């Protein structure tokens, strides 16, 4: 090899090593600042907020990874939450983790969760931290005791007004008010996916570093995918239009079903590989099961930012204005073409 060729080869090797190292240094908090291209107080806040959410994710992941080895971690508490659902010990643990990481943070004044009837106030943070965290501490609770994938969903809003009576009325606003949203997926590895309105980015927890390291930037959802993800056990409770859509996928080549019981994992699959996730309403419960502020709006923000869509069947999820904190909505979310197909069955019957 000539000297020139040798030096070229060396510089390519150096550049590759540098890129690799730079990528390893792209932690979540650094990424947020890079995205915002400023060190303004708001950018610092967002970076710190994401860092705390990441800490909550790490604590929950650690707890889950040892759950089967400890006493009193798995199973039900015997209580029922405000949603009328049986509460698992893991729901309570994860709910408390988010509260604990935001205490004394000076960042978050209120936390509103699927598991709490009313928001949790941290008055000492209020003069400085005018943010509210909305979250689903454990998504896919039915997977908890059998070591299958779970998630946490989060969303951040700026507090509007003083909320002196503690009614949190300012939260009854559309999903367009979210300034950040995303989820943590506890699977074979722990991943964090987030958006601050500048695309969707994924991070993987490197347990040896204890850091979420950038995995993929600016994720774009395919415009169509083979997967439809829905609990077909509800077939006879759905409206005829949804049943017709399911009959359509059954007789059309190229579709395949996937349903894990945790929508964070099902929607993560759809984000990466395309397709559609549905949790429609039923004739008895037209509003469906999923909660707008903690589940459907944050995931809709992520999927829209990745170029996909999320709708109730009649209205974009991000435009829905809730009447109450724990409001539910039907959800059809995923690739643009696949969401449009379901929509067309709901609106035109075919
Ligand atoms: P959660 O565990 O927070 O109550 O949410 C579970 C949600 C969602 O993750 C999942 O897709 C769906 O409920 C499963 O419900 P079904 O058992 O009715 O299919
Ligand atoms: Mn959930
Ligand atoms: Mn939950």
From TrEMBL:
GO cellular component: cytosol
Domain Fructose-1-6-bisphosphatase class 1 C-terminal: start-end pairs: 221-346
Binding site for Mg(2+) 2: 136, 139, 295
GO molecular function: fructose 1,6-bisphosphate 1-phosphatase activity; magnesium ion binding
Catalytic activity, reaction form: beta-D-fructose 1,6-bisphosphate + H2O = beta-D-fructose 6-phosphate + phosphate
CC cofactor note: Binds 2 magnesium ions per subunit.
Assigned EC number: 3.1.3.11
Domain of life from the UniProt record: Bacteria
Predominant location category: cytoplasm
This protein's UniProt keywords: Calvin cycle, Carbohydrate metabolism, Cytoplasm, Hydrolase, Magnesium, Metal-binding
Binding site for substrate: 139-142, 231, 259, 289
Pfam families, sorted: FBPase (PF00316), FBPase_C (PF18913)
Domain Fructose-1-6-bisphosphatase class I N-terminal, first and last residues per copy: 27-217
Pathway where it operates: Carbohydrate biosynthesis; Calvin cycle
Cellular location(s): Cytoplasm
Entry binding sites for Mg(2+) 1: 114, 136, 138
SUPFAM superfamilies named among the record's database cross-references: Carbohydrate phosphatase
GO terms of biological process kind: fructose 1,6-bisphosphate metabolic process; fructose 6-phosphate metabolic process; fructose metabolic process; gluconeogenesis; reductive pentose-phosphate cycle; sucrose biosynthetic process
Family, similarity comment: Belongs to the FBPase class 1 family.
Subunit structure: Homotetramer.
Protein name: Fructose-1,6-bisphosphatase class 1
């Amino acid at each position: 090899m000539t000297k020139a060729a040798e030096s070229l080869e060396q510089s390519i090797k150096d550049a590759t090593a540098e890129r690799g190292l730079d990528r390893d240094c792209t932690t979540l908090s650094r990424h947020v600042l890079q995205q915002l291209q400023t060190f303004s107080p708001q950018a610092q806040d967002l970076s710190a907020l994401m860092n705390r959410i990441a800490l909550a994710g790490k604590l929950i992941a650690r707890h889950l990874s040892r759950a089967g080895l400890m006493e009193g971690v798995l199973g039900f508490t015997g209580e029922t939450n405000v949603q009328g659902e049986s509460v698992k010990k893991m729901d309570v643990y994860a709910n408390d983790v988010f509260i604990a990481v935001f205490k004394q943070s000076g960042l978050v004044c209120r936390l509103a969760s699927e598991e709490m009837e009313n928001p949790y106030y941290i008055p000492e943070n209020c003069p400085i931290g005018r943010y509210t965290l909305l979250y689903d501490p454990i998504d896919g609770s039915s997977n908890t005791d059998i070591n299958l994938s779970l998630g946490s969903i989060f969303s951040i809003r700026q507090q509007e007004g003083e909320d002196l009576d503690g009614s949190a009325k300012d939260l009854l606003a559309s999903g367009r008010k979210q300034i950040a949203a995303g989820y943590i997926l506890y699977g074979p590895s722990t991943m964090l996916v987030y958006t601050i309105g500048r695309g969707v980015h994924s991070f993987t927890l490197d347990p040896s570093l204890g850091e979420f390291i950038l995995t993929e930037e600016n994720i774009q959802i395919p415009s169509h995918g083979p997967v439809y993800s829905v609990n077909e056990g509800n077939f006879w409770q759905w409206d005829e239009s949804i049943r017709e859509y399911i009959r359509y996928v059954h007789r059309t080549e190229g579709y395949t079903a996937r349903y894990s019981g945790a929508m964070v994992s099902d929607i993560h699959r759809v984000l990466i590989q395309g397709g559609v996730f549905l949790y429609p309403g039923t004739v008895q419960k037209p509003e469906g099961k999923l909660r707008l502020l903690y589940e459907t709006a944050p995931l809709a923000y992520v999927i829209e930012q990745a170029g996909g869509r999320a709708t109730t069947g009649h209205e974009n999820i991000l435009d829905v204005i809730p009447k109450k904190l724990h409001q539910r909505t039907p959800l059809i979310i995923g690739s643009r073409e696949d969401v449009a197909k379901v929509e067309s069955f709901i609106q035109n019957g075919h």
